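Q: Structure tokens for this one, please.
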Amino acid sequence: MKLNFEKGDGLIPAIIQDSSTGKVLMLGFMNQEALEKTLETGLVHFYSRTKKRIWLKGETSQHFLVVKEILVDCDEDTLLLQVEPKGPVCHEGYFTCFYRALKNGKLEIVEKKLFKPGEVYGKGS
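A: Here is the predicted structure, written as tokens:
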């Protein structure tokens, strides 16, 4: 099977889901190289559209995402990665990047903040 990277300028969306809870943790993008590194190492790699490079999720925080299963959608242009997270996923300090809900036209924080950006999880005040 060949994934369809052509639709998104060489990138496909990769939805990241906690394999034990089913909670959606984040959305990232992969190119062919990021997918190959993910398959090779068992750790999630993405392509950073901002930095224009491959990055290993957790390379600075040590909050790696261990791949348990990779599912492919019917159009072969989106991935669903079921993972075991090794700590909070969001760089803002929350377990998931989806820590806000849109309620009555306003954003409301619905998750507990686990650390302050710049601190190491479990080592902050």
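A few notes: Residues 32-41 form the longest helix (10 residues). The CA atoms of residues 57 and 111 lie 21 Å apart.
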